[in-house]
């Protein structure tokens, strides 16, 4: 019985080490990210550490971001809100990989800010980009992208008693 248990432990150990090595080599960011992506990641990481991480504990304790910090406007000035939005509305017109990189770095600094950022930039702004009329896009996107306004999303189902 001890031999069986010892063999199982040895096999498990070898399997874990091989799996870790496989995962590390299979998911290397160097395959996915080019130099521009890496530079973007470093830039957003620095912004997040300087402007978000320093306050993350306070955000968590108070469950809010103080208005005087003006974080949303800072993020807008850094062009984080409209990463995937068209340039004609103040966005950068980049793809979702850039958005994911930004979301990851912001979330690394503060999970709470990361969630709020994701809702604002992807759920709200993205829905306006994809579903909004030209008049709605012109009216709302520039202020949402600049960080002058904070976005949200509301949904309901007619006769469904379902509201978000």
From TrEMBL:
Top-level taxon of the source organism: Eukaryota
Record domain Acyl-CoA dehydrogenase/oxidase N-terminal: where: 35-148
GO molecular function, one term: 3-methylbutanoyl-CoA dehydrogenase activity
Coiled-coil stretches: none
A cellular component annotation (GO) from this entry: mitochondrion
GO terms classed as biological process: L-leucine catabolic process
Official protein name in the record: Dehydrogenase
UniProt lineage: Eukaryota, Viridiplantae, Streptophyta, Embryophyta, Tracheophyta
